[in-house]
UniProtKB/TrEMBL annotation:
Coiled coil: none annotated. Residues 196-240 form the Phosphoribosyltransferase domain. Belongs to the ComF/GntX family. It comes from the Bacteria. This is ComF family protein. It holds the Pfam family Pribosyltran.
Amino acid sequence: MWREILAHTCSLVAPRCCPCGREGSWLCGRCETLLRAAPVRVEACCDALQVLAEARVREERRGREVLPVGVDHAPLLPVLALGEYGGPLQAMVLAWKNGGMLHLGSRIAPALAPAVAQLAAESGVAPPALVPVPSRRAARLRRGEDHTAELVRALARTGAGRALLLPARPTTAQDGLGARQRRARRIRLEGRRAREEGRRARPVVIVDDVVTTGATLRGMHEALTAHGMRVLGAVVVAAARLPDGDAEVLGDAQGPVAG
């Protein structure tokens, strides 16, 4: 009771406002519902994560199925997201990432914990190490923190896994690059700890805020596996695209954006 009284008193000086625009709460009931959504597999929608699985120079018959000339692709790693990067979920991510609402990380982390548990269960391993995607130094200075590292720390506090904060840096920025150039993004791991974790073949899950083409996740996967670590998959808050069926269901559930 006293906590609520204090919160209402403070709101007279600094009004509480949800990222969707609704006043009276740092996170309204509808936006909290977004964080209770079951994680969705989105790797099939990430172009940069597709790798060549098979090529056929002539038509093949396998049982009753006829496979045409062409190539088949398979995703490099599984990726789980809470929803599509749009509407209230996009507003929440932007407020947390760039809008100074750093407290939202502690609300987002428990929502991602089931996705981490799912990847661990599918691989038959204990809670894995959690590795954040690194931000460029200029972005960290602008935001005042490394938001993905803080998200990983909050995830670790839920018991989903162990935070593994490896010194890392992107070797190229994404701004102004085309789709083909984004696919070639590289991330460099630095320091002794990455080598030590690699020698143990540590199972890890990559954590990021938003996935678009998957180029950054691909760069992290290459960097981690090059050091010997076993990447179980990635979890993200939102994805630029969802599989068609999931997008339709999510759109109906979210409804219009609050003003």
